Amino acid sequence: MASGPSGSASGSVSSLIPGGPSVTASPGIPRVRNPIWGFIVRRLLLGAFVLILVSMVIFLATQALPGDTARAILGRTATPASLAALREQLHLNRPVVVQYMLWAGGLVRGDAGTSMAAQEPVTKLIGDRIINSAFLVLCAGLISIPLSVLIGSYAALKRDKAFDVATSLTTLIFAALPEFVVGVTLVVLFATTVLHILPAVSLIPPGGRPWDQPVGMILPTLTLVLAVTPYVARIMRASMIEVLESDYVEMARLKGLSEWIVIRRHALPNALGPTFQVIALNLAYLAGGVIVVEYVFNYAGIGGALRDAVSNRDLPVIQAVALLIAGLYVLLNLLADIATILVTPRLRTRL
Amino acid sequence: MEEKTSRQPLVLKGRTLTRRELLIGAGMVAGGIALGPVIAACGTSTSTGGTSTTPKKGGNFRLGVTGGGAKDIIDGQNIVTKPDQARLVAGFETLLTYDENYNLTTDGLAESVTQDAPDKVTIRLKQGITFHDGKTLSSDDVVYSFQRLFDPKQGLFGAAGLGSVDPNNITKVDARTVRLNLKQADSTIPDQLGQYYNGIVPVGYTRIPDLTTKSVSIASSNGTGPYKLQSFTPGQQSVHVRNPNYWRSGQPYFDQVTIIDFPDPAAQVNALLAGQLDAITDIPFAQVSVVQAHSGLKVLESPGGGWLPLCMAIDMEPFTDKRVRQAFRLMADRQAIVTQVLSGHGRIANDLYSPFDEGFASDLAQRHQDFAQAKSLLKAAGKDGMTVDLHTTDGAAGMVDVANVFAQQAKGAGITVNVKNDPNYYGDQYLKLAFSVDFWGTRNYLPQVANGSIPTAPYNECHWPPADSNYLSLYKQALGEVDKTKRIALKHQMQQLEYDEGGYIIPFFNNLVDAYSTKVSGFQPSKGTLNLDSFGHGFRTIWFG
User: d(Cα B498, Cα B221) in Å, to the nearest integer?
Assistant: First the structure.
């Protein structure tokens, strides 16, 4: 996964928390008893601010580039009439700031514009596809997160034993493979060449839902699980090893607590903190990695919509999907920070 | 209307048909007016390519097609993407048809098409053909179909080929007879009536999605074709069910046809290998051997006539000197280009187009790579050792490859060709470049000339013909000439001019390479424009068994 998520334990949690120890709620934010709520509200505002910045970048990169946008979109099918109609539709005759405000204002009202290829509202075009992609990411996340935490923890406990060596090697190999290689290999193994027990592509009929055909979900989900699990498992192992060598775990053991209690009460929560960050990064990465997997399995998700939109130069769809993925990044990072704080008393008290 | 016929995808530039049948039918003239050629009833041959020869009914035929997306439409007279072609032929039919050998036949909706005079064409419909909604096909529908083709708001491709038809003078003679009055003599009208995108639609027909309401409502789909539309989601799939009142007895055979869009050709092949599809279009060349090795699958390779020309503008430097153009044509190793660009799935060409035309000049000597001759021509023109830019883009498969391979070969003549791969190629620069790559599908010679080789042609890349040439007057004579021998002689003169001094380097004609499951019978290789034997003639000459 050369371009994949880089699981790094160095992303220290405290640096992700704005404000520092002295927490005085800013004006307008209601005082709440549990400080975590103040933190969430602050982070939501920050997230909204980030999204506004991202939306500006997306807009500038797609619509406000120098040159004739309408001609770039229409290419060889450009006629004077179609150019004029497109300039009207995208408000290209107005100043850039006005164009942006019209677009952003529409987004706030839930109107992402009209797809230029399909001539129907973007929200209608990608609505079902969002559900399909979200379900795929959810399946992959629900399997890969517990699995990688288990593998990582157990490998740390059995450090340098057979299980640890075997999983280290396996996770390294899978981490090195791009997911289209994994996907295609799974297709060859289970669908087309070696065995013929699973479908090679996921054909979700229009209006249908992916969970109506669970058998079609197996290979795409497995591909994503194999893409994500190695990173998280390796971080979990590293962080668990660090924790198991810490003074407080040694103290807990010296006090005569059972090993199970030591692990469950003292080691695991502390080891999970850094892992949450990596999980969030990987889940957010899934939103992008899902594009590759959807392509391999012909899965009707946002990846297909984005790919189609790029080849059609369908700006409203490109903008909407890019912003959606950016929003997901912001949201997942927020969730990871909250989860980290909840499992880390030291951070909780600093709020 | 000219400005509305904007450049369409490769697949739309279908070819027209040979006119052999016209002369076979000459003399069997309807109505006693023996002025011109007639197409009389000559059915297609009924050979089959599958495993069983007795058609069986039933089953859901699943077809995978690449190249579709949110732009997909269903229109009896238009396509935007490749899956649109499959959906069109399932539901709609043309007045004339062509067989697998590229001959026009009256196997379509017309009983006969008669060119009473060089500027009059009379169409007589078959009896008892009904639309999906039960309405009987009549001359009113034919008149409406032509008027719709000419409606600039629809932006339909067929209007370009029917340019000599007077849109205001299409007359209904009786319930089954329509007369087209031409603005000028034109012998190519029957060719156009067999083009799949000139389908016959009922009075009041609208496409999907509707142009004004943008709604995807299948209620408006109504043709005479073998399958009725049941559902359609652009970019994903469509379902078509058997038309129980279809006019050809016994056909079609499937209960249902499902057409599924695939963005990735590899996923499409996997789905075929896994048994999730029964046929697919356009296998990647690298996968042909994989499919051939599979006992349950067959490759259908059809000798099509698509071409990717390297275009030298004859009025721009360095190509104003015809010796430079001749030298460049001698620099190409055509067989090597077929091998490297098409993996061998094509045939070498000779800088001439329309290989299936009745008048194709196959007698002109095949050009081969000849660096010595090329160098001496360049030296004589004072252009030896020069550098030139070759512009291309990913407009159709192979356009960038053919430029790169040619640039490599040109080094042998001491010429440096810099390949410029420009994503905005079809924006501002197209048709204004000295040296560029373009793509074309197949059509017959005169319609192709109208599209690419005369000053009024919408895509005249080479700025052909030279000002002092009699090419244009030969073209006008050929268009109005109803005598086949004389017409062929005129076309030959035109091709000789292009062969000697033209601006096209045409290295090859490519094949269509499709695949299907051995569970399906009835497919056969065809010279037609469309993949998979015109999708099994609208999925009606193929069956499970």
Answer: 44
Q: Does B440 touch chain A (CB under 8 A)?
A: no
Q: How far is CA B200 from the centre of its chain?
A: 18
Predicted confidence (pLDDT) per residue in A161-178, tens digit: 888 888 888 888 888 888
Answer whether A203 touches B (CB < 8 Å): yes
d(CA B86, CA B79): 10
Residue to mutate among A69, A119, A195, with most B CBs inside 10 A, is: A119
* Range with the largest mean pLDDT of A2-16, A33-47, B474-488: B474-488
* Contact at CB, A77 and B270, closer than 8 angstroms: no
pTM value is 0.79
Distant-in-sequence, close-in-space partners of B518: CB < 8 Å, separation ≥ 6: B50, B51, B295, B296, B297, B298
Decide if A305 and B70 are in contact by the 8 Å CB cutoff: yes
Tens of pLDDT, residue by residue over B292-342, are 888 899 999 998 888 999 999 999 989 999 999 999 999 999 999 999 999
Q: Which residues pair with A341 in a beta bridge?
A: none
For residue B197, list its beta bridge partners: none
Provide, for chain B, the percentages of residues in helix, strand and coil under a 3-state DSSP scheme, each rounded to the nearest 5.
30, 20, 50
Is pLDDT above 50 for A196? Answer: yes
Q: Which residues are CB-contacts of A344 (< 8 A; sequence separation ≥ 6)? A: A13, A269, A270, A273
Strand duo B310-312 + B237-242: pairing: unpaired
- Tell me which chain A residue has its CA closest to the CA of residue B274: A192
B448 conformational bin, left if phi > 0, alpha if psi -120 to 50, beta if neither: alpha
Burial of A95 (0-12, 13-18, 19+ CB in 10 A): exposed
Residues B252 and B226: their CA atoms lie apart, in Å, by: 6
CA distance B79 to B99: 21
Q: Alpha-carbon distance B123 to A21, whole Å?
A: 88
Three-state secondary structure of A100-166? HHHHHHHHHCCCCCECCCCCCEHHHHHHHHHHHHHHHHHHHHHHHHHHHHHHHHHHHHCCCCHHHHH
Q: What are phi and psi of B15, to 5 degrees?
A: -90, 165
CA angle B90, B93, B97 (to 5 degrees): 115
A291 touches A183 (CB < 8 A) = no
Q: Do the Cβ atoms of B274 and A206 come within 8 Å?
A: no
Chain A residues within an 8 Å CB radius of B275 = 196
Q: Do the chains contact at B70 and A71, CB–CB below 8 Å?
A: no
Q: Which residues pair with B261 in a beta bridge?
A: B65
Q: Hey, which residues does B165 pair with through a beta bridge?
A: B182
Using alpha carbons, list the distances in angstroms from residue B535 to A32, B28, B86, B275, B531.
68, 32, 6, 19, 6
Contacts of B262 in chain A (CB under 8 A): 201, 298
The strand pairing partners of A31, in sequence order, are none
Cβ contacts of A81 on chain B, cutoff 8 Å: 3
Give the closest residue to A205 by CA, choosing from A218, A219, A220, A216: A216
Take residue B392 and report the two structure tokens written for it. Answer: 């291309």
pLDDT digits (tens, 9 = 90+) for A208-252: 788 888 888 889 999 989 888 888 888 888 888 888 888 888 888
Mean pLDDT by 10 residues, chain B (545 residues): 32 31 31 38 40 83 88 89 92 91 88 88 94 95 95 81 89 95 89 92 90 76 94 91 93 95 86 92 85 91 90 94 95 95 92 92 95 94 93 82 95 94 74 91 86 87 94 92 90 96 95 93 88 93 92
